[in-house]
Amino acid sequence: YRLVNDSARFLSEEIDNAAALLMVVDVKSGITSLDMEITKNLKKTKRALILLVNKADNEDLSSEGIAEFSRFGIDEMIPVSAVHGRGIADLLDVVTDILPIDTKKTEKQETAYRVSIIGKPNVGKSSLLNALIKKNRSIVADEAGTTREPIHEKMALHKTTIDIIDTAGVRRKRSVEDPLEEIMVKSSLFTIRNSDIVVLVIDASAQNLSDQEIKLMFYTNEQRKALILVFNKIDLIKEEDRAQIEHNLSKYEHLTKRLPIIWTSCLTGKQISRVRETIHKVQLRCQQELNKDELEDLVVSEWNSKPMFHKTIRLKIHGVRPVEAKVPSIILYVNYPEWFGSTQLSFLEKVIRKRYDLRGCPIRFILRKAKMFPTS
Ligand code: GDP
Fold this sequence. Notes:
Layout lengths: L1 H4 L7 H5 L2 E7 L6 H12 L3 E7 L4 H11 L6 E4 L8 H11 L2 H10 L3 E6 L5 H9 L17 E7 L2 E7 L12 H15 L3 E7 L7 H12 L3 E7 L6 H11 L3 H4 L4 E3 L8 H16 L4 H14 L3 E2 L2 E2 L2 E7 L5 E6 L7 H14 L8 E6 L7
Parallel strand pairs: 1-2, 2-3, 4-6, 4-7, 7-8, 8-9, 13-14
Antiparallel strand pairs: 5-6, 10-11, 12-13
This protein binds guanosine-5'-diphosphate.
Guanosine-5'-diphosphate binds next to α7.
């Protein structure tokens, strides 16, 4: 709006300082003379320019919009629907892709990691929180489920401030009608989604992992969050009990073998400092810089050594680009993003984990269609 009213001073300071410009047009009203004027001026700025064709609420409107606005000759056009959220993920991918590394670095320095301590009632979450921050913050009592509300704490950890959230435990859904139980399960899942690192506390004296704990473990993995397993109350168990738990865990080896597992006692203080160190280590691993060329060599050569097909078409990876984020995130430029499923991605994940130390960290893949290469 300001651009229009102030066209004489069109090259405003904001534009000069911007790393990328997002221009929004309305597919429903079509090209207007104002759109044309703005485009002409924005192109002169030599900034990365993305055209957002908004109100593309469905496939038809998307293709219509792309066809109509391609007249503008802007390479990067994304149909979006701000109201329905369509295309926003694509937009974020493109923006991350073109942002200069420096800009992302500055943001990263300010990010604190959110750590959450989750688990069933009475496993020792509050005790662990207290031990980690070395003060009595939450009330610990013998009665199960004393801690109900998430507690936010700042923990000074090797100069990094971390939020600790102790959530109400996940309870078995004994009766669906019980709204409190329902809310508790939901609150744990919500906490996981809002964390960067999840510490799942399990009572080792219970001898086995419950269904809910396994569910939380897989959910955390699905959500691409870092995960640390803590088996607490080891003062109550014998060596053979521990062997039994380890044996039970081996059923989920594909996931657990890449997780840090710590055996603690909040009562005696055993291995508590290890939890603190591990949180820090996982954070460092998550933040490690993956070298683009090295990663690309690794991924492309391993990929080519084991050709994968969708029907008769060979799936190709043309390029790879690590993105700076809270967890290792990698853009894959491929010929058919829609055909890269869990088989392909777990193969790549294995290859990457073999080369880099990513214990406890998730790997997030972002699939993008490679533009500059033939698609078959
Ligand atoms: P939360 O409900 O998961 O937060 O569990 P709490 O921290 O409130 O602990 C529940 C009970 O277990 C309390 O009586 C604690 O004193 C006890 N507890 C916690 N950690 C340990 C431990 O390592 N060993 C033993 N023996 N008891 C513990």
